[in-house]
Amino acid sequence: MEQMDPRSGFCNSNCIFYSKRKPLPLPQNHSLDITTFISSHAHHGKLALIDASTGSHFTFTQLWQAVDAVATSLSAMGIRKGHVVLLLSPNSIYFPIVCLAVMNLGAIITTTNPLNTSAEIAKQISDSKPVLAFTIPPLLPKITASSNLPIVLMEEDGKPPIAEAKIVNTLGEMMKHEPGPSRVRDRVFQDDTATLLYSSGTTGASKGVVSSHRNLMAMVKIVLGRFPIERDETFICTVPMFHIYGLAAFATGILASGSTIVVLSKFDMDDMLSAIEKYRATYLPLVPPILVAMMNGADAIKAKYDLSSLHSVLSGGAPLSKEVIEGFVDKYPNVTILQGYGLTESTGIGATTDSLEESRRYGTAGLLSPSTEAKVVDPETGEALPVNRTGELWLRGPTIMKGYFSNEEATTSTLNSEGWLRTGDICYIDNDGYIFIVDRLKELIKYKGYQVPPAELEALLLTHPKISDAAVIPFPDKEVGQYPMAYVVRKTATNISEKEIMDFVAAQVAPYKRIRRVAFISSIPKNPSGKILRKDLIKLATSKL
């Protein structure tokens, strides 16, 4: 470390970038579960969770009583350490209760997207082998279609459940369970598995990411360190709780801060803005498309809603451009933009900007998170690179996953023996230690041996006044290997042609980066965290071949 440059964090002797953020002490008690760790934080008894649509709520005292009751009830049902429990539900104030109760027993929570098809859910059930599922009545058929899993209903709609459903309990009944001495308490250790989240699969098949209680504790400590909460803060939760972004922020991290979380079951712009006004929300985590919509509709929004309580938006999923940051700051001068970068495999942790000044390093993912180390590695030679050189980002630290579930091959190709996670993201780190993600390694387009980053062309297309959204994909070609193809969403009432778009890009990039094919589309498919689903567009483009 003696050769570490304090400005960039880069150490010459081992080619590692060290975090410039203050390191965080982790709990020393080896026998500790994430639920006990979170519940040990002070909360002053105020509101923990509020349902934005109904106003139903839990104080912190009621929340921890409910978690204890559900854990006791699960134990009585025979759920033990190491068992997997599936949670299929939209965002709700009950979502964290189920997660925290399951993890408190040393059992493992696996979550899935309510929008997934029955076939996708069946695949996850056959991979993760849960012994019990929690869901809501409208989603029951998605589970019963492929399995006869015992099911706990998280809410009741007054109708008899479908005949095939093996309903064994309701969450309402479980929450009435008296926590008693009868509960079987397995010792839970920090290294035990806590969650099994399936990575988004934007570049291939979805894989189960195994995270430990220690991974989650480190994540909570980092989240708490990022928001030095001195007063009563209120967070709006629209990001999906089944995803690492929502789970990290809301089912665990923010709860430990003693803040109030207002939960929206699904994203709706008007509902979100109404909730900010009604509950005087101060923090709004979101994904870039929502931030752009707030910027574009700012005048109408401010005329209709009082957003004066809001002081910070947290954006994750993709970096924000200079135009978006400055446009948003111009419209909402009292709101600070904070950005973050992380993966399911790193428990949502990696890099952040913690002030507007840091976010104004346009295009940056931020500085390395506390206790996190990085390497920038040349994908061709394996050489670790210094500042301002572009290569694959490797991360190491206390939030890095244990591995992929039942997938030794994927684990060894992603995690090396020294604990480095190959992120698959192409980046460089500048002289001041800021990380700039350039593209996904697997998404680089190979044109005559040249590597073309789609994100660079997408950023360029978005500067055109007649384009509202764009995605660039590799299109197969016998002669050149692949060439860049653009899917473009035109701005309303504009009519830009394929040739105009190709000429616009050609005037600004090297010849090998030119776009050689354009298709128009009504919207770009994206996953819940805002990442472009390129594989869907590749399938669409090549289906006509």
TrEMBL record:
AMP-binding enzyme C-terminal domain ranges (all copies): 456-531
Keywords from the named record: ATP-binding, Ligase, Membrane, Nucleotide-binding, Transmembrane, Transmembrane helix
One Pfam family hit: AMP-binding_C
Annotated TM spans: 242-264
GO CC entries: peroxisome
Keyword Plastid annotated: no
Residue ranges of domain AMP-dependent synthetase/ligase in the record: 42-405
Gene Ontology MF: a single term: ATP binding
Family in the record: Belongs to the ATP-dependent AMP-binding enzyme family.
Name by which UniProt lists this protein: 4-coumarate--CoA ligase-like 5
